[in-house]
């Protein structure tokens, strides 16, 4: 099973290297379109290889997806924490009640 995982990672690595080698030409990324940049006098841009833009877009998309999913599941995690606290409290109460019961009635203690 370990070898299959390594083989899949090797195929992914080869595909990423092939994409990087095939897209080495530089591209210019600008924050605003040219017309808006002239209006706001804020013309910021950077020149990067195309593969860096592609991989950066993938990473940013993954991060946004992970954050979105984490926020979406917040209510489920909160409910699970609440149920865990309640179960722990009930276990302590059962333990305390068993201790009180064993001290009072020897016949019932033998049955349990």
Automatic annotation (TrEMBL):
Write out the entry's keywords from A to Z.
Answer: Cell membrane, Coiled coil, Membrane, Transmembrane, Transmembrane helix
**Coiled-coil blocks:** 73-100
Q: Does the keyword Nucleotide-binding apply?
A: no
Q: Can you supply one Gene Ontology CC term for this chain's record? A: plasma membrane
List membrane-spanning regions: 48-68
Q: Where is the Lipopolysaccharide assembly protein A domain?
A: 23-94
Q: What InterPro entries has UniProt attached to this entry?
A: LapA_dom
Name of the protein in question: Lipopolysaccharide assembly protein A domain-containing protein
């Amino acid at each position: 099973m370990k070898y299959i995982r390594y083989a899949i990672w090797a195929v992914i690595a080869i595909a990423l290297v092939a994409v990087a080698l095939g897209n080495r030409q530089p591209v210019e990324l600008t924050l605003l379109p040219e017309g808006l940049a002239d209006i706001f006098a804020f013309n910021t841009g950077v020149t990067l290889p195309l593969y860096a833009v592609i991989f950066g877009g993938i990473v940013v998309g993954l991060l946004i997806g992970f954050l979105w999913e984490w926020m979406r599941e917040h209510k489920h995690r909160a409910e699970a924490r609440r149920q865990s606290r309640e179960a722990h409290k009930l276990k302590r109460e059962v333990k305390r009640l068993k201790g009180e019961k064993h001290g009072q009635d020897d016949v019932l203690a033998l049955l349990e």
